[in-house]
Amino acid sequence: MKLxxxxxxxxxxxxxxxxxxxxxxxxQPLTPRAVTASxxxxxxxxxxxxGENERALADYDLAIASDPGHAGAYYNxxxxxxxxxxxxxxxxxxxxxxxxxxxxxxxxxxxSAARYALGDLDGVISDLSKVIELDPRLAIAWNNRGLAxxxxxxxxxxxxxxxxxxxLDPRRAVFYDNRGVARSRIGDFSGAISDHTQAIKLxxxxxxxxxxxxxxxxxxxxLDGALADYNQxxxLDPRFADAWFNRATYWKxxxxxxxxxxxxxxxxxxxxxxxxxxxxxGLMRLLSDRDGEAEKDFARCLALNKNLKQSLDxxxxxxKQQLFCNxxxxxxxxxx
Length: 336
Known about the structure:
Elements: H1 22-27, H2 32-49, H3 53-66, H4 71-83, H5 87-100, H6 105-117, H7 121-134, H8 139-151, H9 155-168, H10 173-185, H11 189-202, H12 207-220, H13 223-236, H14 241-253, H15 257-270, H16 275-287, H17 291-304, H18 309-325
């Protein structure tokens, strides 16, 4: 069974563009370069809000060319690059904005999101620690740092951060769900179930919370409760692949290979590059004496993620041992 990916729950900071203010202009006379840069920023912001990322980017380029010391221009260009998934250059621009304004809290927060997208958890923790230093009341910063810490295996540190996030904002369902996942990872399934239940109370259509509570219940041995939660998650969002995958593990645990295979197949259809799902479906096919189909799934699994080879080999060996110890009647001639 799988818990949610640690990258799934990172909450992006509220991206507030650097808007040129007439009040600022009146209070602080602008140089001709700054006036020109401000005009480009205003037009770039207009393109950005319309989703015209390339045009916005071009205007921010012109703003920076006009006034290379304008931190807001770098910040806005970084937001455009982030939206376009150009994370490395977004980080470069956020960094330049921070160099020009070391207390630019939004730039630290958004840079942490870009670093998260690239899997740089140490960088995420560093940025969010700075955000917390600048404003310890930001619940989102505590939550996001908790996710990064959990991703590095520091589950106790993650729990402390989630606790603080919940204390600051006790009505945010996702904070409880994230803490529940962290609790599952240290084996506190009762605590996890309590947190996921609270998340569901706050947000009854929270698909991830239903799925995560199902996983915690399954780990605890409450298979009926797990199935009910997976069914509800699928009912709320039939395109949520994780719930199909987890329900497949329920069928697998109950020996229903046909249903397990069907649910793993559905997960694959929704997420065609999910290596684990191919590996698990292959095991169902192997146990159903369909070696050829199983081998295709195993090959696809390893093509997508070669790091799974050791664990997959172990699971295949266990499945073959199970077949050897429990041959089907037709393999021994059947009952007389």
